[in-house]
Amino acid sequence: MMKHIISFSGGKDSTAMLLRMIELNYQIDEVIFADTTFEYPEMYKWIDKIEKILPFKITKVTAPHTFDSWFYGIPKRGKRSEQGLIRGFPPEFFGCWWQRDCKTNPITKQIGEGNIVYLGIASDEAKRSKAKRYSKGDNIYKFPLIEWNWTEADCVKYLESKGLKHPLITKFKRTGCWLCPKQGKDSLFNLFIHYPDLWIKLKKYEEDSPNGFKANITLEELEIEFKKKHEGGTAFLPLIN
């Protein structure tokens, strides 16, 4: 039997989509959240908060192995395998192996085949819904926010109308892994300022990795830049008003 499944990231857009779908009496058979194990602390609290107001539990899926076991593991082939080097960070400009292992694969396995999958892509990012992966396989992918013409700003307003202001939207435009190499300087600055313990962990990973966290600049160099900016009076860089 075909199931109606929501892929829930915990971000403002997917949260707004989920709550509005419930209001509109959409059929919802399962809500799936992929835990990267590197979400911001506020994200875990937010998901717990949202789950408490839902009429059902959220299915949480994870990778079959830890990030550290992969990060510090030696590849089975390639130059690093020949040199006995660990994998280290995912490359900044290519596909992320951790996203594949902790999000894409577990969610794909949980969803199965022949189902309807709802994704929280806002109308001002509608081009993301054209990705080839959404036209492959036996599943049908739907984008309610695009159908409703809801922008990211609309999602924020909707949540605030319910007394639900997402705790991360003033700090990060994208609320994924705090150690994602693809995040920009604004996000990294806010990580440095507001999450010093996580910043220290990130620097330790870079120290151990055969390749740097970013392609053209080290975290130490970024830290010098960030300290000057903070000493100049910048508390954080707001990304969404």
Low-confidence stretches: 237-241
SS-derived structural category: alpha/beta
CATH topology of one domain: Rossmann fold
* H and E order: EHEHEHHHEEHHHHH
Count of β-strands: 5
Helix content: 40-55%
Number of helices: 10
- Name the CATH homologous superfamily of one domain: HUPs
Mean pLDDT across residues: 92
Shape: globular
Q: How far is it from the N-terminal to the C-terminal residue, by CA?
A: 43 Å
State the name of the first-level CATH class of one domain. Answer: Alpha Beta
Cross-sheet strand order for the largest sheet: 3-2-1-4-5
Strand content: 5-15%
- Alpha-carbon Rg, integer: 19 Å
Question: What's the CATH architecture of one domain?
Answer: 3-Layer(aba) Sandwich
Biggest sheet overview: 5 strands, parallel
Short structural description:
This protein has 241 residues and is an alpha/beta fold.
How does this structure look, described?
- The protein is an alpha/beta fold and 241 residues long.
- The chain has a domain at 4-171: HUPs (Rossmann fold, 3-Layer(aba) Sandwich).
- The chain has 10 helices and 5 strands; from the N terminus they run βαβαβαααββααααα.
- It has helices at residues 12-23, 41-52, 67-71, 79-83, 97-111, 144-147, 152-161, 185-194, 196-208, 219-231, and strands at 4-7, 30-34, 59-61, 116-119, 140-142.
- A 5-stranded parallel beta sheet has the order 3-2-1-4-5, sandwiched between helices.
- β2, α2 (41-52) and β3 form a beta-alpha-beta unit.
- α1 crosses α7 and α8 (185-194) crosses α10 (219-231).
- It is globular.
- It starts with a strand and ends in a 10-residue tail after the last helix.
- Residues 237-241 have low confidence and may be disordered.
